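User: I would dearly like some help making sense of a protein record. This is the protein in question:
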Amino acid sequence: MSIILYSYYRSSASYRVRIALNLKALDYQVHPVNLLKQGGQQHDTDYLSLNPQALVPTFVDENILLTQSSSIIEYLEDKYPHPPLLPADNVDRAYVRSIVQLIACDMHPLNNLRVLQYLENTLHVKDNTDTWYKHWIEQGFSALEKSLKNHDCNGRFCFGKQAGIADTFLIPQVYNALRFHCDLSYPLINRIYKHCLTQSEFIRAAPENQLDADKTEK
């Protein structure tokens, strides 16, 4: 087995890559990196030599080392093209990538662990972090719901008749939003989420099914 994924079970970025690897039917080995224990194992010297940003995931495929979930998934799409995670038409590909960027660039960075920790520990606004989180979830999902509707989404996947790269980003973001008790009154997003969770590739990638899953963590 040549593929190694340094992952934290509740990291949405790691979750995305696990889904993509499963959709590609690739064998891989998970090396857990706990972002909370021991001050955060992502800050260990050995791990920093792999990922200077102290983030997960980190992906290793033989002599290839990559960080950033979008780049990793695009690499998988190029090297292992079947089954495809992007549509064939260039306009459709651009649309799907716009969904990816909406989540990866406009939603997730504002609500990931290090941002919430900075708000709580440095800016001392702990009482308002939930409000902060829910605000950006509402903005992002409201726009995404409209976009899905405008593109005649069938409610099974974000685009088309099979799971693709947009779904690898949406499902982890919904999972996190549910953890933070966000209002998810978005019919299409909810239908996609529920349908994807019936698919084996998504089930195996789910946080609760990871070897490092810890039910004691809040």
Q: What stands out?
A: The mean pLDDT is 91. Residues 3-83 form a domain with the Glutaredoxin fold (CATH 3.40.30.10).
